[in-house]
Design goal:
This protein is α/β, with parallel strands linked by helices. Helix 7 runs parallel beside helix 9 and helix 11 crosses helix 12. The longest helix is centred in the C-terminal third of the chain and has 13 residues. The protein is globular, with a radius of gyration of 20 Å. It binds pyridoxal-5'-phosphate (PLP) and iron/sulfur cluster (SF4). Pyridoxal-5'-phosphate (PLP) binds next to strand 2 and strand 3. Pyridoxal-5'-phosphate binds next to strand 2 and strand 3.
């Protein structure tokens, strides 16, 4: 496959739709290596192929364009490159690290914390992150049909203690605008809801996802929108992402936050974390959480020890204003909130 964007003579005249970007995303290790001029042994050969069978490679072009060609240690590459290390079994790392399967009140509806429910609104993602804690999640059990979603809405409507619905996934912005618009209107109709939170990596993975229709759906909704993007490194936030954030900020009701995962080889140095926070603010986004890696099978090689996380936070606090310092947290199954690491 020819990667047009790596061709210096190529000038793009009309921006591609986000759906086109999903269609033309890279889906194999071979294509990824070829596009970036990387040697075949970069990922560890056969075991990496096996890893990409278990959890396919999926890299959209806008992400690919931010990776430095020929650099096997590029922090954006490491997030998407299937690696032999994923096949190593490590004690303590399992398929369902957060015991989420037991927390579902309905398929795809998780009620862990007071006042908030999480609805797995979509099974797909626009990028496959190798450290993903839901990489083994049974997405086929997530609600898909309108009647299944309706059941979830009825459950939410029956519990007046719920103030906020989090749309998560997968990635909820993989839904089409008409479908998302319908979900938003249903939620709008539940009187005790106040806030709508969307957890998504799409504005970073494919900035064209911030469409006029999406913006209109948010604007026309009574619920206060909070959009939590997921970026782990400043290099993810290029000018297209900044422009997408600016479009979102044209609606003053929208709050933009970021959550990251602390990842070995990606963002485990204070300079990188500080740069990420600064760049987020350039884009009008405030850092929210920095998660310690959930112990999901296949991701142990990304793990950063808690003591190192604490040290990084101390250094970060002494180099940045307080509002640019995310909260270092870990998720412990059964706890009433994320657990701060202090
Ligand atoms: C993380 C999470 C939330 C949100 O927690 P906040 O601390 O409000 O960001 C809600 N529900 C579930 C199931 C979660 O995993
Ligand atoms: S976008 Fe989120 S849910 Fe999807 S693979 Fe990446 S981390 Fe996992």
């Amino acid at each position: 496959m020819q990667i047009l964007t790596n061709d210096p003579g190529f000038v793009r005249t009309t921006p591609r739709s986000w759906q086109d970007e999903v269609k033309r995303a890279i889906r194999t290790l071979g294509e990824l290596r070829q596009a970036l001029g990387l040697p075949a042994e970069v990922d560890g050969g056969k075991a990496a192929e096996a890893a990409s069978q278990a959890f396919p490679v999926f890299v959209p072009q806008p992400w690919l364009e931010r990776i430095e060609r020929g650099n096997p240690q590029d922090p954006l590459l490491l997030q998407v490159l299937a690696a032999a290390a994923e096949q190593t079994e490590v004690a303590g790392f399992g398929p369902d690290p957060l015991a989420e399967s037991g927390m579902q009140v309905l398929p795809g509806l998780l009620h862990k914390y007071q006042g908030r429910v999480l609805l797995i609104a979509a099974g797909a993602c626009a990028i496959h992150c190798r450290y993903c804690f839901r990489r083994h999640f049974p997405y086929h059990e997530a609600p898909r049909s309108e009647s299944q979603l309706q059941e979830a809405f009825e459950r939410i409507a029956a519990d007046p203690s719920i103030e906020e619905v989090l749309l998560s996934g997968g990635d909820p912005l993989m839904l089409t605008d008409p479908r998302l618009g319908w979900i938003l209107r249903q939620l709008d109709g539940i009187p005790h809801l106040r806030r709508l939170r969307i957890h998504t990596r799409l504005p970073v993975a494919i900035p064209a996802r911030i469409t006029d229709e999406l913006q209109a759906a948010l604007r026309e909704n009574r619920l206060q929108p909070v959009i939590v993007i997921h970026a782990n490194h400043a290099a993810e936030l290029d000018e297209q992402v900044a422009a997408a954030m600016l479009r979102l900020r044209s609606d003053p009701r929208i709050t933009l936050l970021n959550q990251s995962v602390l990842l070995r080889g990606v963002n485990d140095r204070v300079a990188e974390l500080a740069q990420l926070s600064r760049r987020l603010l350039d884009c009008g986004v405030l850092p929210y959480y920095l998660h310690l890696l959930d112990p999901v099978a296949g991701a142990a090689h990304f793990s950063v020890p808690e003591e190192q996380g604490l040290r990084l936070m101390e250094e970060l606090r002494s180099s940045l204003p307080g509002y640019l310092v995310p909260r270092l947290v870990r998720e412990i199954p059964g706890q009433p909130s994320k657990t701060p690491i202090i």
